[in-house]
Specification:
Blueprint: E1 8-9, E2 25-30, H1 36-46, E3 52-54, E4 59-61, E5 86-91, H2 101-118, H3 145-150, E6 153-156, H4 172-179, E7 237-239, E8 248-250
Helix pairs in contact: 2-4
């Protein structure tokens, strides 16, 4: 039963059962949070563990890759998702932010191990994940169910049938960086400079995809709501209040629009 030899074993909710079909595939997610511990708490609460959680320092394994994990939504009458030989990785971070080099290097190492262990080809049958546009869901994701059912390879959560989340939203350079062979240097990645060594802003950010860790999406699958014109977030206001001209950034003052906040369901991503 496959446990990755360089992963830290950390069981949480256990497997969702045996696989019901193949071929093997790798599903990439983002945790929609800034720490592994925050992700573990959410997985425990929702019983939504992937096989692996990866951050810049550690590869954690929660479930043996010989049985199914739990991070995908699965509808009663469609294809199997979690149990269709999907080996799932949650990358600590956000769909709308860049992924750091150290984290991607860990994901890459893990992917090579999964590919070798379960004969997963280095292809993306439903296309590459689509990156965020202005920090939001770009839409138009290919979730072809026949490919999913019949073709091994890599899939973003955004490319899995029956699912609505848009993670991991890798950019093209991030995918190229992930798919490098051991013999290829990172300098062969076009756009390498867009992959940061560190992302200090991540710790203060929040998800643009509410409650990603709940695969059944109870908070994102709201009954049809009248769609307001895209609720715009106020950008931080820059106030230059010092005589020397150094600029301070403050939160936007509470506006009148706030009155609707508590009664409005989360925007559906
Ligand atoms: Zn996901």
């Amino acid at each position: 039963m496959p446990r990755c030899p360089f992963a830290t074993w950390k069981p949480i909710s256990g497997s969702s059962g045996t696989y019901t079909g193949g071929p093997f595939k790798i599903v990439h997610h983002t945790t929609e949070g800034s720490t592994a511990q925050g992700a573990f708490d959410a997985f425990k609460k929702h019983r939504s563990d992937p096989h692996f959680t990866v951050d810049a320092t550690t590869i954690y394994q929660h479930i043996d890759t010989g049985s199914a994990s739990r991070a995908l939504k699965n509808l009663p009458n469609g294809v199997q998702t979690n149990r269709d030989s999907a080996v799932q990785i949650e990358v600590v971070g956000f769909a709308h932010r860049p992924k750091t080099r150290a984290t991607l290097e860990n994901v890459r190492r893990l992917c090579r191990w999964i590919e070798a262990t379960h004969s997963v080809p280095k292809v993306w049958p439903n296309g590459l994940p689509k990156p965020a546009v202005n920090g939001q869901d770009p839409g138009g994701h290919n979730r072809n169910a026949t490919n999913w059912d019949t073709k091994g390879g890599h899939y973003g959560h955004s490319n899995v049938p029956e699912n609505t989340h848009w993670d991991p939203a890798y950019t093209k350079p991030e995918v190229d960086f992930l798919m490098l062979e051991g013999t290829e240097g990172p300098e062969t990645v076009e756009g390498l400079e867009t992959i940061p060594f560190d992302d200090p802003g991540m710790a203060r950010d929040h998800s643009h995809m509410p409650d990603h860790a709940d695969p059944q999406g109870t908070s994102t699958e709201m009954p049809a709501v009248r769609r307001k014109p895209a609720a715009k977030k106020k950008p931080p206001v820059k106030i230059d209040e010092s005589p020397t001209g150094s600029v301070k950034t403050t939160e936007a003052p509470a506006g009148k629009k706030r009155s609707t906040k508590d009664t409005t369901p989360h925007k559906i991503d």
